[in-house]
Amino acid sequence: MAAITAGRLRRVARALETLAGRRGRDRRPGRGRTPGRGCRPVRGMPAALPALAAEVRAALADLPAPARRRALCGPDLRGFLSEAETWIEVLRLASSAAPRTAPLFARISRTEHLLTLVPAGRVDAAFPARARALAVNRLAALASDLGAFLLGLRLASGPSPRPVEVALAFHEDAEQGRPAGRIDLGTFAGPAGPLGLRGGGLHGGALLRGGRRLRARIERGLLTLRLPGHPPALIPAAGSPLASPHRLLARRRLIPGSAILLAPALRPGPRRMGVGRDVPGLDRRLARALRLVRLAWPEAHRGVAARTAMVVPVREPGLVSYSLAARPGISFINVHGKRTVELADDLLHENAHHLLHDVQETVRLLAPGPDAEEVQAFASPWRGTLRPLHGILHGTFTFLFRAELFARIIEARALRPGVVAPLLGPGGAAFVRRELGRELGMLQRGLADLDTAAAHRLLTPAGRALATALGAWHRRLRRRAAAGRLRQRRQGGRPTRGGR
Q: Strand, helix or coil at 262?
C-alpha cells in the first residue's frame, strides 16, 4: 500500500506541474495514465501546489521507514490524492481544445457537485467552464490541506535545518471531522502527539472565522505563525513533548489507550453536514468498546489499531455508521443510544471496510464494466434494496467480521464471565446471541449472490478466490454457532456466571 501511494503521489506531482505550466507534456511510458497528461496549462491553478507536492515527497523520504509507511497509508495523504486525482481529471477534460462533455459529465456525476454544475438539470455550453472553475477552486483548497500535512510531518520528524513555509486556511471539513476554527496537522502522532492549530484565542482572543489564512514556518523546531496585520506568534520546540503550552497549538483528542483520534461530532445542516462539539464521555465509551474487541478477538483489535486513524461521531437516530473509500481510515460512527457492544461492532465493521478498500487498491475483484460496478441488480439482505455487486461484496465481507466478533464474544463470556459480562451490560449477551443467528442467515443470502456473480463472470479470479474464502469462513461460523447452542441445551439453558 505504501508503494502504491508513493506512486500516486509521484504521478499527481507531475500532473500538477503540467497544469501549472512548469513542464511539457509527459511522454514517458508508465503503468497507467498520468492524471492531467495531454492537458494545457490552466490559468488560475494554485502556484504553490506543485512545490508543496515536491516538499511532501522530500519530507517523506526523510522519515524513518515505519513512520513513512504510516504517513503513506493514512487518510491524510490518500484522501488528498483521491480528491486531487478527481479534479485533475476534471481539468484535463474541461480544459482541452475541444472539451469532452460526456466523460466530463460522467466524472462530475461521481462527486457531490453535480447539482452545482448542472443547476438547470441539463448540460449547456458553459458546463465545461463551470467545471474548470470549480476544479481550480477545489485544488486551491487542497493546497491548504497538503500544507498542513507537510507541517505536521516536519513537526513529527524532529528539528530539521531545512525550513518549510506554508500558507494555511481555517475551514470546516466534515469528511475530516475538522471544525471551522481548527487546522489539523495530520492524523499521525509525533513526539508531542497529534497536533492542530486553534483559531480561537489567536492574537488577543480574536476568533478566526472560516477561510481566514495564516502562514506557518518551521525551522530547527521553531514554529512561527503569521496572520496578516498581526505580530508573529513564536512556538519554540513545537513538535517536542517539552514544548511550552501555547493557546494556538493544540493536542488533539484520542480514544484512551489507543492512537485513534476522536473528532467532534457531526451535526446535520440544511445542505450538508457540519462539525459541532466534542461528545462528553464518548472517549471512555469507545475505550470500553475497544477493550471488548481486544478481550474477544485480539487479532481484530490489532487490525483496528493499525487501520482506523480517526473516529468521527454522528448523533442522528436511524443513521447507519459509514466510511468513505476516499478517506481510508476514518470511521463515521453513529453513537446515538449505542451500548458498548454496538460501538465495538461499529468500530470493527468500518475497519473491515477500510481493509477491503485497501485490498481493492492492490487487486481488482470485480470484472470491469457497468454490470459489475454500477447496475443495481442484487437485493441486499441488510438494506432491503437493490444494490450493485460492489455493495454486496462489501456487505458480505464486513458482516462476516460482525458475526465472527459476536461468536467470539459468546466464547469469551463463557471463559471469562466476570470480565466480559460487565462490558455487555443488561441484555447484552442475549442481543449478541440473537444477532449472531440473524447475521448468519443474511450472510447466506449475500454469499449466494456472490456465487451467482461468479457464475456470470462478474468476479475476477481474485474476486472468486475471495468469495470462496468468505464462504468457507461462513461455514466454520455456522458449525461453531451450532456447537454453542448444543452446549447450552446440554446445560439446561442455564446462563454462565455473570448474568444474561
A: strand
Which residue matches cell numbers 471463559?
Answer: 415
Strands 195-198 and 213-219: unpaired
CA dist., res. 54 & res. 398, Å (int): 37
Q: Please give the Cα distance from 424 to 435 (Å, whole number).
A: 14
Q: Which residues contact 364 (CB under 8 A, 6 or more apart)?
A: 460, 462, 463
What confidence score (pLDDT) does residue 205 get? 45
Element (H, E) at 492: none
Report the domain count for the chain.
2
| pLDDT score recorded for residue 40 | 60
Instruction: Quote the cell numbers at residue 218.
Output: 518551521
List Cα–Cα distances, 454 to 381, 382, 451, 468, 470, in angstroms.
18, 21, 5, 10, 13
* Predicted local confidence at residue 47, as pLDDT: 81
Strands (E), 49-122: none
| β-pair type (310-314, 330-334) | parallel
My answer on whether 308 and 449 are in the same domain is yes
Same domain for 467 and 346: yes
Q: Is 59 among the domain residues? A: yes
Fill in the amino acid letter for 311. Answer: V
364 with 481, same domain: the answer is yes
pLDDT digits (tens, 9 = 90+) for 321-355: 999 988 999 999 999 999 999 999 999 999 999 99
Q: Which residue positions in the chain have pLDDT lower than 70?
A: 22-41, 200-211, 243-245, 492-500
Q: Does 144 fall in a domain?
A: yes
pLDDT for res 82: 93
Residue 76 domain-assigned?
yes
How far apart, in whole angstroms, are the C-alpha atoms of residue 301 and residue 310?
15
Domain check: are 441 and 322 in the same one? yes
22: its cell numbers = 512548469
In this structure, is the dihedral angle defined by the CA atoms of residues 356, 362, 367 and 373, taken in order, positive or negative?
positive
What pLDDT is recorded for position 432?
96
pLDDT at 308: 97
Q: Tally the residues of the chain.
A: 500
- Contact assessment for residue 330 and residue 309, using Cβ atoms and an 8 Å cutoff: yes
Among 127, 143, 168, give the residue marking a domain's end.
168
- The angle, 0 to 180 degrees and rounded to 10, between the axes of the packed helices 389-415 and 461-490 is 30
How far is residue 89's CA from residue 243's CA, in Å, rounded to a whole number?
Answer: 43
CA dist 500 and 494 (Å) reads 10
329, 465: one domain: yes
Contact yes or no for 178/152 (Cβ under 8 A): no
Which one of 139, 168, 197 terminates a domain?
168
Rounded CA gap, 295 and 248, in Å? 39
Residue 225 forms part of a structural domain: no
Residue 436: domain span: 276-490
Looking at residue 242, its pLDDT comes to 73
Q: How far apart are CA 442 and CA 172, in angstroms?
A: 39
Nearest-angstrom CA–CA distance, 210 and 250:
18
